[in-house]
Amino acid sequence: MRNIFMVVFALLCFSAKAQKPAAATEVKFTIADPSPADILYFPINAPKVKDGEVVKPVIKIIYSRPQKKGREIFGVLEQYGKVWRFGANESTEIRFFKKVTIGGKKIKAGIYSLFAIPNKDKWTIIINKQTDKWGAFTYDQSLDVTRVDVPVRILSKPVEYFSLTFTPTPTGTNLVAGWDKVQVELPITF
């Protein structure tokens, strides 16, 4: 009996030592991107739960937010008259969860890219079928769903990070974009 006890004790000691965790190796993480990604929903509180009820989204936008960093943006960094990715890094992605109308054009539910052609007094906002593209380098105009010209509003104070938000309207919402001292609004109805 004593021999069995000694064998079991030895096995337990050996087993405990064998299960000792291996030394952890340090993982090297990538540095944070200077243009962080963001997600915007309409309604703003979708898809959060409010009072036990899920608020279903109508629109979802995934975009990167470049910074001004003391630079002059429009007309210099982002040249007038050239297609811009409407943010940084990958082209901005917009998802409609139901049919919407933009600039008189009915657009079915789906995922699209947002581009813009900034100019001093107006911007052309572009909804395009291309998705998952880096920047506007491979932008293909033949895949445009619609183009809408919107007026530029000059702000009194600059916006440091490229920013998007929605403002509700009686027939839908306006997508509002602001960066540096420029703001534009794209009406969307549904």
TrEMBL record:
Keywords: Signal. InterPro entries: DUF2911. It holds the Pfam family DUF2911. Residues 1-18 form the signal peptide. It comes from the Bacteria. This is DUF2911 domain-containing protein. It comes from Pedobacter petrophilus. The lineage of its organism: Bacteria, Pseudomonadati, Bacteroidota, Sphingobacteriia, Sphingobacteriales.
